[in-house]
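At this stage, I put together a protein sequence along with its fold in token form, as given directly below:
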Amino acid sequence: MPSAASATVAPAANPAAAVVADQCVADPASVASKAPGSPSATLPADLVSKLDAAAQASFAEAAAPGALVGVRTPQGTWTAAYGYANPEIQAPMSTDMHMRIGSVTKTFTGTVLLQLAQEAKLSLDDPIDKYYQGIPNGDQITLRQLANMTSGISTYYTEPFLERYFGNPETTFTPDELIAYGVAASPIFEPGAQFNYSNTNTILLGKVIESVTGQPVQEVFQQRVYDPLGLTETSLPDVSLEIPAPHPQGYTLQGAKEPGVPINATNWSPSFGWTAGGMISTLGDILTYNRALGTGQGLLSPETQVERLTSWPEPTGYGIALGCFDGWVGHTGELPGFNTSQFYDTTTDTSVVVMVNSDIASGGCTESPTLSDNPSDLPCSAPATRVFVGLSEALGHPFQPPPAR
């Protein structure tokens, strides 16, 4: 769903990567053939101290009550929790908490799409109208263009949807309803002509997955991603508003009636996310998934993973449901109240995950709503992205996100 580089739900800017030159991943074949990792060791104390200092400093500048952070390198793993899960009663965050992960969901959808292509059950060059009728230019728009956000289909996060959702955040939406909102505002350009980040694209890919497999997408994710990787705390809710325990309270300014005053969005309906942003997970599961996503291990063949790691249509740095900047591959995710940033450094075999219980931006933002006591001398950033950037600097390979607004 919304980008970690922006506090709006469907930004025009790329949420997962910045402009890249030539090839973002220097040696895709090497990345796709890495040996399985061994995460059981603890990172060296000096590195932990450096990471902890970076996390604390960047968290202090983020507009979030709490944060979970995790770093996994060939040397081992470090995780930590900061701040409050519930600031009203000063309940602390803990690393086992469940969080909504927003658009990180798109990477799961893209992974299953590639699995089905690998098995010749579909082709990335199939037109969408082979699987779903009624899409403008549907005979020309390919599944690949849906996955890399060059389809020309508008996001469904338009005024008619916003009015209905913020009027009653517990509203349950069906995938077909979401697609209809996007179709009503489409096309916005010819297929393949431009990049535009649209949640409608990934909802359509969810419908394709169900059409090809004959199963609910929740079952497909379970069989094809969760079970192979041992992700026991990851799920895609159907209509449930509740997050599994333990979980923090999530805070947002989206839909707030009083500017600068956060509201609790913990139990708002996640149904408008579905295969574009509806998933729930934990820090431990996403750390495991993050390396598998970057290397393809346990998910895709080396050949298919190389295709994914070279799928960036310039100049966006966004490929098959995956972003890339200077060797970092991954995605950000946001739903009202929650923000996640998960990236894998292909140059050092390092995974970094940040999960926070707020989607509120801080800094010199011109469009994103901020808190009333916002430190405007900082660059505008979503909270998980701000902490992730601090950790990347401590690791010696700084991540520079696209400018937030």
